[in-house]
Amino acid sequence: MPLDPQARMLLDQMQSMGTPPLHTMSVPEARQLMESMNVLIGAGEEVEHVEDREVPGPAGPIPARLYRPAGHGPLPLLVYFHGGGWVLGGLASHDNVCRSLVNGAGCAVLAIDYRLAPEHRFPAAVDDCYEATVWAAANAAALGCDPKRIAVGGDSAGGNLATVISQIARDRGIPALRFQLLVYPATDAGYDTASYRENATGYFLELEGMRWFYDHYLDGVADRSDPRASPLRARDLHGLPPALVITAEFDPLRDEGEAYAGRLREAGVPVTLHRYDGMIHGFFSMGPLLDQGKRAVAEAVAALRAAFR
Description:
The chain is an alpha/beta fold. It has helices at 5-16, 27-41, 95-105, 124-138, 157-172, 194-198, 207-217, 221-224, 254-266, 291-308; strands at 49-55, 62-68, 75-81, 108-112, 145-155, 179-183, 243-250, 271-280.
């Protein structure tokens, strides 16, 4: 499929702004760029209740944001981990997506502002996200949520973290998770897939950009084979929660996300895989700009509703 015209227009707009390649930027410059993208995407939907709070973490309190839709009774809960290559992003960068998921799925969302690299390298993000998920399950009733209906989800680096937290929760026996929402997840720090070669440059996320992210996140080559960094390399995927895996055609991470879906299916885990043709990395959080982003969010909403029933 050709590149989607709306994605082409967005890429042309970014090029006209003279945005330098990510791998040439300092971390502060890259973070500032992501903040400017938030302005471009615009404000999200109105939600009945939004509350900034802190949850206990392994190295101190973790900032979090709780979203709740209108209604009463214990709600299902999605614990959401933002993208940004473990280096960028936070509560503001994915506020738009969280609001859409809350209103569409009728669930609460707890967004986790985990520690970022390079200030806090691997496995700090993993440790924060797992502890936050355990806390959310243990305190679900106090949040107005149902401890038996908890899911994890995230996009890109956040999708990576959702896969890893699902594996750790299975191995440790807590918490029980109902579902995992994996949006173009990074599942292997190898850079050796066809999608990396085909989409190395020109489609928003680039090969050298991913090298930049991993170089800031991981301490060395040995970390790349750790399943907590490369969950595709886990030996056993049996017993994991059902999953929706969303990928994009013009995305370096396409093949590793689809390979992870294949491994889940081989392990007997119910999984739905949907590749969005013509799309680029990041489209899920660009719903206000990209029609296929809206459709992907609607698919995620439907999957969450079905999983929580």
